[in-house]
Design goal:
211 residues, mainly beta, six-stranded antiparallel sheet, 2 helices, 10% helix, 45% strand, globular
């Protein structure tokens, strides 16, 4: 489960992405356009320390892009290449926002969601001690088997920033599709698929292959 906060962010996530996205090799869209959220989902960090959110966004008349993000209360050691920016959270204070493809916590959560079929975390707010569940804006499903053993991810060896983006860890190789549905990548392995309001047919978002 993912605990959310009713809070203000300065700058906002979409503002950070508007500056960051045009510099990505896999980005296809106008360089100077507002970034809008299409849908999003979250994974849970078992340690409760790192926020893990995947956003589907669009700029202008460009395609939908998948952007996994992690939010941390302190810089990720060795993560400078993956830092998108910092934001001030009105409840949690300063947060470091990363391209999650360079964050081992995201790699571990993604592998678990795919391999065990667990999918996304339920999102909720705490209001006066009462839990309010936020309805999901998209649904993701892993095609793995519940109870399967998830290979632990301790370190990321390398990330190849193409379409798809490849994450090579000590235990699993992951592929993150940056432009869902744009083309058939011919990838194999266990897969995470998603649907959302404008996309009722499931599309692959990510793949996992044990090393």
């Amino acid at each position: 489960m993912a605990l959310l906060h009713r809070a203000a962010l300065h700058p906002g996530k979409l503002e950070l992405l508007a500056d960051w996205l045009p510099g990505r090799r896999w980005y296809r869209g106008p360089a100077a356009a507002d970034v809008v959220r299409v849908a999003s989902f979250r994974f849970d960090d078992p340690d409760g320390a790192v926020g893990i959110e995947t956003m589907l966004v669009r700029s202008g008349d460009g395609p939908v892009h998948q952007v996994p993000l992690t939010y941390r209360a302190a810089p990720l050691p060795g993560g400078d290449d993956w830092l998108i920016g910092t934001t001030e959270h009105s409840v949690l204070g300063r947060r470091w926002v990363y391209d999650a493809c360079g964050d081992p916590v995201y790699a571990s959560a993604l592998a678990a969601a795919i391999v065990t079929g667990s999918g996304q975390a339920e999102e909720f707010f705490e209001v006066d001690g009462v839990r309010e569940v936020r309805p999901p804006s998209m649904t993701v499903t892993g095609d793995g088997t519940p109870g399967s053993t998830v290979p632990p991810v301790h370190v990321i060896h390398r990330v190849v920033e193409e379409e798809p983006t490849t994450i090579v860890t000590d235990s699993v190789e992951l592929a993150v599709v940056r432009r869902p549905g744009a083309k058939d990548h011919g990838l194999t392995g266990a897969v995470l698929t998603a649907t959302w309001a404008d996309q009722p047919t499931p599309l692959p978002l990510a793949y996992a292959v044990a090393r």
